[in-house]
Amino acid sequence: MGAALGARAILEYDPVQLIGEVTRVDSRGICTVRCDMRDWHVERAASCLLAPQNGDTVLISGPVPSQVYLIAVIRQAEPDASRLEVSGDLVIAAKDGGISLEAGQALRLQGRVNASLDTPLLEMRADEANCTVGKMEYLGVQARASIGSLQLVGRVCEVVMDRISQLAHSIFRLARDTEQVRAGHIDYQAEQSARMHGRQAVLTAKDLVKVDGDQIHMG
User: Burial level of 33, CB count in 10 A (0-12/13-18/19+)?
Assistant: First the structure.
């Protein structure tokens, strides 16, 4: 049909259905399509989600020459790179089913303003993960982690809790400068031995100091 229309001049009331090649796409999305040595300046139809590129073979159609649209991309000049593009908001919905995104190599999600996930259950699985966040806030009811090895490196750590419980076979803590503890009551208990040592040691009490043991050695 395209060849038949190209054999004569298309009148203003003739329907148009031609196959041509995209030669230009401007900033407004208007495409210049070369069909039978004639350039058509057409908009992309809303149903054509695949963004045309220079060199693509496309189908243009319309009821009259003044109402012609780019209907479909038939063959891409570079089939290894495809772009689905709309001018406004886009919703992909599966009313009674699920949606899966699969990539043979890499999958990238990017939001210029923000990205949000809203779901009753979120599952993530990865052999390796890298996370870079400038500032993060977490609000939740409960968090539980099972980790084989954990390493934290930072400048400042502040923890505010009603209660902290720690259970470990061995704990080593090193403070290069000063360690201070302020508490209403302090209770230390060792099953085998307890040792406190310093170049200078001071033990004071406002009311009472008590030392009790089967043997007490001083000096």
Answer: buried
* Strands (DSSP E) found in the chain: 16-25, 31-35, 38-44, 57-62, 69-75
Quickly list DSSP for 26-42: -TT--EEEEETTEEEEE
Structure tokens at 49: 């989600």
Hey, what are 87's tokens? 């001018």
CB 73 within 8 A of CB 44: no
Can you give the pLDDT of all 219 residues of the chain as single tens digits? 444 444 457 777 889 999 999 999 998 889 999 998 899 999 999 999 999 999 999 999 999 999 999 999 999 999 988 989 888 888 999 999 999 999 989 999 999 999 999 999 999 999 999 999 999 999 999 999 999 999 999 999 999 999 999 999 999 999 989 999 999 999 999 999 999 899 899 999 999 999 998 898 887
